[in-house]
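Fill in residues.
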């Protein structure tokens, strides 16, 4: 299996992964809108034997510093719990760090995302509609940026609420 950047010809297969991995097509629509709005910064696919089996996207967050939001991450149901999602997330975070993004945010299951270094305490100083125990941040560079202020996810996320 390889992890690589999304290519234009991958979009149909990515949509199929998203629709298989989530109970509704909302996340597939989110990805389409993030692309259309120009808010996608990192979009990676996991490819095994020529087929796309997973996808992760990081989009720009409005903040006083360079920040990204991790969402969504999806793996075909038949391939879940095999490390593909973790590999996609780690690859995306490595690229974000290399590209000098300062913080990454995620809204998700704390025990899962803590494995990658995300921490609810690091996000607790930020004002966001998503603030709460499932809202986490990960520092990608040192020194740390300011750990308070307002952050706003790309407008496409509002359609999921």
């Amino acid at each position: 299996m390889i992890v690589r950047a999304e290519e234009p010809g991958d979009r149909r297969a990515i949509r199929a992964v998203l629709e298989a991995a989530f109970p509704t097509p909302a996340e597939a629509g989110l990805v389409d809108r993030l692309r259309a709005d120009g808010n996608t910064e990192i979009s990676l696919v996991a490819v095994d034997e020529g087929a796309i089996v997973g996808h992760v996207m990081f989009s720009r967050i409005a903040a006083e510093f360079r920040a990204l939001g991790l969402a969504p991450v999806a793996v075909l149901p038949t391939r879940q719990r095999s490390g593909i999602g973790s590999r996609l997330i780690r690859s995306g975070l490595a690229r974000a760090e290399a590209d000098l993004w300062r913080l990454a945010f995620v809204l998700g299951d704390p025990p899962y995302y803590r494995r990658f270094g995300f921490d609810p305490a690091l996000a607790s100083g930020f004002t966001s509609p998503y603030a709460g125990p499932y809202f986490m941040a990960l520092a990608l560079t040192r020194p740390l940026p300011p750990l308070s202020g307002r952050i706003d996810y790309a407008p496409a996320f509002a359609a999921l609420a």
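The domain at 2-160 is CATH 3.40.630.30 (Aminopeptidase).
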